[in-house]
TrEMBL record:
Pfam families: NTP_transf_9. It comes from Roseicyclus marinus. This is DUF427 domain-containing protein. InterPro entries: DUF427, DUF427_sf. It comes from the Bacteria. PANTHER family: BLR5716 PROTEIN (PTHR34310:SF9), DUF427 DOMAIN PROTEIN (AFU_ORTHOLOGUE AFUA_3G02220) (PTHR34310). Residues 15-105 form the DUF427 domain.
Length: 113
């Protein structure tokens, strides 16, 4: 793994909300820290209401994690484009995040309960 990336089990139970609706809760979330960036919480897909998410055609490539696919989040307040992402086939160094989804905290609420 790149020396500047760390993945560990996130402490406690985490929730993600959009437009007042709970999209998911998990006590199995992972916390990824990368360099000086704020930590990112990755939720297992099984703990997210995937009916609220629709995969988009957007993608980005990280040299350490691989190709990220993006999702629009649907809420009562409207659609939030590309508010979530997932590494469908992450690099071996960050394989732990496979099957997990992260959310932009400036678009939805992610918090520890």
């Amino acid at each position: 793994m790149a020396d500047h990336i760390r993945i560990r089990k996130a402490t406690g139970k985490w929730v993600v909300r959009a437009g007042g609706a709970v999209l998911g809760e998990s006590d199995r979330a992972l916390e990824l820290t990368e360099g000086d960036y704020p930590p990112v919480i990755y939720f297992p897909r099984e703990d997210i209401g995937m009916a609220f998410l629709e995969k988009t055609t957007s993608s980005t490539t990280c040299p350490w994690k691989g190709v990220a696919s993006y999702f629009t989040v649907s809420s009562a307040a409207g659609d939030i484009p590309d508010a979530a992402w997932s590494y469908e086939e992450p690099s071996e160094a960050v394989a732990a995040i496979k099957g997990h989804i992260a959310f932009y905290t400036n678009r939805v609420t992610v918090e520890r309960l």
